[in-house]
Amino acid sequence: MKYLIPAGPGRQTPVGVVASFDFTRDRELWRWVPADVSLYVSRTDSVPLDDSFELVSRLNDPAMLTRPTREVTRVPISAPVVHYCCTAGSFVGGLARERALREAMTEAGAPAAVTTSGAVLTAFEVLGARRIAVVHPYVEPIAAKLADFLAEAGIDVLSSRGLGLESRVIGAVDYATTADLITGGDHPDADALFVSCTLLPTYDLIAPLEQRLGKPIVTANQAGIWATLRAIGVKAEGPGQRLIRY
Asked: Looking at the chain, which terminus has fewer C-beta neighbours within 10 angstroms, N or C?
């Protein structure tokens, strides 16, 4: 009896992801990725969870990215691009530190490097969005640093709404809470709405809430994967999501 042997998977393009040690949305990242791309995820070293501002400040240290970047750029993975998947960890030190994070990944072997916060700024530029409504889960000191980062980049933040959560519990936020945060945090004059934090679940909310609000919604994980794939000429997937058109 003869058996039909399937052709098997085609050639895969590797993409490196350096996630913060507490990242829990791996599956969400994959939903923006086409079938011929594979994500190789490494994580930073752990840092104490007791103080949220101290946590993200430690994750903003370029030295934290050297080891995990090497893990995904060395043979046999040899990723042509590496994404640092952490929003607060890439904005808390301002534009200069965001640039230093990318430089650290490049020095560690990444041919191209992207951070979540840098990707968000690229998304705003592509969408022509300069006036933004922001929603986030952070405690106030981190929220203030987000406002500073966006202002430094020339973004006009018209409104900001947060959940006031410590970092250790953000991963438990569900779709219903995130949807309420988005709909309650919009501003009528905003060109787009930004959902900050890679720990918030957003994939299935983006398209329907864009239709409801009548404007683009840029989320941390969406922008990060979109910009990372874009850096190597690959189009992200996300039916009905405005950013994914570009």
From this structure: N
